[in-house]
Amino acid sequence: MKVNKEKCIACGLCVNDCPARCIRLKDNKATIINKICIECGHCIAICPKFAVTTDEDKMKEVIPYKKETFHIEPENLLNSIKFRRSIRQFKDQEVETEKIEKIIEAGRFTQTARNNQDVSYLVIRKEIDKLRLLVMESLYHMGQHILENLTPENMSHKRYAKMWVDVYEAYQKDSNIEDIIYYQAPALILVLSPTPINGGLASTNMELMTNALGLGTFYSGFTVRAAQNNQKIREFLGLKEEEQIITCMAIGYPKVNYLRTVPRNDAKVTWL
Ligand SMILES: Cc1cc2nc3c(=O)[nH]c(=O)nc-3n(C[C@H](O)[C@H](O)[C@H](O)COP(=O)(O)O)c2cc1C
Q1: pTM for the structure as a whole
Q2: If you measure from the C-alpha of residue 219 to the centroid of ligand 1, how many angstroms do you get, rounded to a whole number?
Q3: Protein residue with least CA distance to atom 5, ligand 1
Q4: 256 and 214: one domain?
Q5: Element (H, E) at 248
Q6: Would you give the DSSP letter of residue 32?
Q7: Where in the sequence is the domain holding 49, given as residue range(s)?
Q8: Would you write out the chain's pLDDT as a tens digit for each of its 272 residues?
Q9: Residues 16, 116: one domain?
């Protein structure tokens, strides 16, 4: 982070807003202690004189606030959250690379703890069939294990376990059976991170972006579950040791139109 001393008017806005407390006013100019800076960019965003910058390359993507293109009416935002649905019926239509990139952009700009920016993305289009089979195989073994070791505690898993076993056995006889893993979605984005909250937050914004682009998605929890401790899947995906699959977003053009929102339980809220 650099301060242009000629532009700096020592207003102190960056000093007060810096979460790492690494900006001081020295000789009536803002001075940044870069060693402890977490590069969150608040100083760049808040400066009325645009006196704070960082590497030239990174600065190219900084855009000024404009109400017309940045503001979202609260009612519209809430409605779009209420109207969002998990999509499990997709058109036989590819998802454009530019749209996938836009979705990832929404993830990239999502906040991370300590501004670690430790979320990465794995896009799968050509290899979906191979991944689906590996996931089905893994779930089959997990299902078998659950069914062979049923206890009162894991009874609630019985239904899924039976489904995983049945589906894999049916697939062995006929590989054209209904795809209950990805519902024929043409693209997957795996959101990877060593920090679950960071990957989860990125995924939520990515889902909103997916919908805004006229696409639909659902989270494949089955994939996340199947990949847990499964070396074959991890190797197939080329995951590094510290990388965890936080979500798997199955994405495509929806073949369904929803006409209204759905009911939800009341929020459990305590006010203190
Ligand atoms: C973490 C997570 C994992 C999920 N895994 C699956 C899945 O493997 N397969 C599936 O069809 N839906 C999956 N879903 C979708 C949920 O079933 C869905 O969000 C829920 O039924 C509510 O429906 P809605 O998303 O349309 O509001 C998952 C959702 C979440 C949040």
Answers
A1: 0.95
A2: 6
A3: 221
A4: yes
A5: strand 244-252
A6: E
A7: 2-59
A8: 999 999 999 999 999 999 999 999 999 999 999 899 999 999 999 999 999 999 999 999 999 999 999 999 999 999 999 999 999 999 999 999 999 999 999 999 999 999 999 999 999 999 999 999 999 999 999 999 999 999 988 888 899 999 999 999 999 999 999 999 999 999 999 999 999 999 999 999 999 999 999 999 999 999 999 999 899 999 999 999 989 999 999 999 999 999 999 999 999 999 99
A9: no
